[in-house]
Each structure stands twice: as structure tokens, then as C-alpha cells.
């Protein structure tokens, strides 16, 4: 084993090698980068993912996302779960959240983060997250994506937010999940601070002030540096020092940005103030642009090292944009993602629709766009296919669909199956679409089933992206068809449901409830 502790990783490599050797290193199998952003909304970018540019697209400046889009394919209908841990476990396992049961965000061992509800009790979901062993209670045992890639000759690097397993469990450390290197990843899902001057939420000796203190970045303590930049610098040093090992690399670049707490990235903050933004909005926009700079720095590194032509980049967010606070442009909460409805934590489009870009040189047509719908668990089989890992057995059932054919064909095709979301939990915030729900999207139709009221809502997403018109009353046949499809799926994966406090009865699956 070459790698035991990520903190010693940099000592294990000789200096970087020349461009000819680098080409030899990667010519047979591609390097793969999954660049995942935390809580980034569908429109928190100057790249339009709709049929037209919105005011938010005109406000943000993300030139490197524009650069990536011009060199690859833009997915206008990409989806994730409405909160972070379910999405991240789905990406790493290929499982839908209803099956893996990590349906809410995780933190402490055996402790649920569900907020109290007057009418519902919530199921014993897998609060301990994803694990590399089958001996951890209330967790899902998986053969993870990095582990499979590592077994097939890849150097696997994790940088940034992990949030895979609860504190005190093996899954809290990305090294145990198949990563050769872990930069700053641990159990918590957000940073204590984005500021080096605040030691990223730690004391000077490196001990965390709270569970949110970001580990492993002591060399930046006290410096005037933003967390996004520190992660990028350290990641590029690791990649540079690793080039001599003759392995292709898998980089999971997982930024803590643009999660709360909002801090101003001073490199970009003032420009948004000068554009008339409020303080909160300028903070947030500066964090978005700092993330974009990281993407550009990584792409430029690939250019310098002559790795660009053999490196795949997949860009995605882990859930819809945060929309609880008012950032000033609309004067109202939950309006950050318009024309999408609501935001993070919601079953509406604002909570689950995310930006996604894929660059695959010589395979994906440059500056191409697809409306093909994908969901985050699809990344698992797709990346394995990209890496040439075609025959592998996993302990878990794979729900995701391989979309390599979409990338190669550059033509509109229909998705083979419906997409499902399941959230039998309470996030703790309130707002449109936030609550215990199960959801199915099949073609242009989307059905949301509310666990508390057992009400069903029906939307035609193609015609009503803002989900303003509930069509359930006028389309009973479609409601029944989607209720049957959703109910059958939830039964098939043995999905957990909440319990009604007054009756102690388990909330029924949607096909067992009269359509209303």
C-alpha cells in the first residue's frame, strides 16, 4: 500500500515529470474529475441552463464554467436530491436515496437530525451514512466508486467536503471509502468558517471549535486566504506531485462552497457591491466566483501539464440552491432560484434541479446541449464506463443509468426509466415544497406525494417549469399512472415511510391513497 495517511501523501512522490512522460501516464485511460459544488443553484452562474438567460445568469460571473460549457455538453435537466448527504451517497454508490436510506443529512453517530413535527414521527433511516463495512448499525454498506476505480488502477484523490458517514464511523474518513488521498474531508457537511484568518473554524492547535471545523489545512492558519483557494492550491500540489506514479487519477473535487456560513471572498466581493448587490448577495456571489476560479485553475493546470486531452471533467451541484434567506433582489425568501420554485430541501424544481456540465475531449461535441434528464446516481455507472471498468460486482444494487451513449450520440433520446426522489424526513426549515415527500418524474410529468396530508400534486415541467399550476384535478388518469409507478418503486426498494402520531399508522404508499 502506498498510502496510509493523507497528511503524509506529499512525501511519497518524486518531483513532477515532463510532458512526454505525463502523456504516457494517461494515454490509455482518461483522468476523471468530478467537480461537485455544495448548494449551488441551477442559475447561480453566467451559464444559462434554461431556454433563455435569466437575471441571475446576468448577475453572476463564472467565466470558467462558460469555458467548460464551450468545450463540452450542458445538461439542462440534471437532478440531485434536495439535501446533501443523500446526493453524495447516491453518487458514490449508484443507489437511489429510497434504497440506501441515507435520506437526510448526517452528522453524529446514531443521532437523527430530523426536526420535530406535530403530526409525524420519522423512520429509523440510516443516520450513520455510507460505510465500507457491514458492521455499522443504521448505515448502508457499499462498494464505493473510488474503491472500484482504485482497484482498477486509478489514483483516487478526495478534496473538500466529504459528508459520507457519521462522526466516529469508518465512513467519516474518505480514506476508508477508497480514496488514496484525503484533503480536508470529514463527517461534517459545512465549514466552521471559510476564512484562513479564522483557521477555517479551528483553534490554533488544529482542534475544532465545533464539529464544523475543517481538518487538515493547518499550513493556511492565520493567512488571508479563502477556503476554496486553499483547497485548490493543496489539490493541485497533490496532483502535480503524483504525476510520476504512472497512474490515471480520479479527483473528487468537492467544495464546501457555496454552503453557509456565507463569508465574503475578498477577491470578488467588491465588484458585486459595485453592481448594486446587498451585502449577503455579494458574499454569496463572491463565493460562487471563487468556486469558478478553482475550476479555471484546475483546467489551466491540465493545460500546463498536457493532460487536457485525456481528462474528463464532470461538473454538478449536490442539491438545489439555498433559498431560505432573503438576499435582497426580490425582497422575499425562497425566491433565489426563480423561475424555479423554492430551493434546497424542497421537492419542487428549485430544490432538486442542478447545473451540470461534462467535458470529454474527442468524445463529447464542444458547445453542445442536451435536454436528456439525468439524476445524480447516474454518475456512478457512467464514470465506471468512462474509466473502462465494464465488469464489476457490487454489494449494492445499482439504480443509476449509464448515460455515456448520450454523451457520444449528441442527439435527443428518451430516458429509459422514471426518476424518483424520497424524503421521509423533516429538514427543519419551512417553505414551498419543504417537507416529507415522495416524487416521480416520468417524461414531462412530475407527481409529488405529501406524506403528512397524502395530497398529490401534478405538474407538466416542460410547460410549467415554475410549477405554478397543479394539474392533478384535471388529469386523474395521469395521477393514477404516476401514483402506481411511484408506489411500485417504493415497494420494490422497501422505502421507509413516516408514522402518523395520532394513529401510529405508517403513511401509505401513494398508490394506496385515493387520488386527490
Automatic annotation (TrEMBL):
Cofactor list: Ca(2+)
Chain segments annotated as coiled-coil in the UniProt record: none
Segment forming the signal sequence: 1-24
Annotated Gene3D superfamilies: 3.30.1120.10, Alkaline Phosphatase, subunit A
Start and end residues of each Sulfatase N-terminal domain: 30-389
InterPro entries assigned to the protein according to its UniProt record, in alphabetical order: Alkaline_phosphatase_core_sf (IPR017850), Sulfatase (IPR050738), Sulfatase_N (IPR000917)
Keywords assigned by UniProt, alphabetized: Calcium, Hydrolase, Metal-binding, Signal
Family per record: Belongs to the sulfatase family.
Protein's name in the database: Sulfatase
Source species taxonomy: Bacteria, Pseudomonadati, Bacteroidota, Sphingobacteriia, Sphingobacteriales
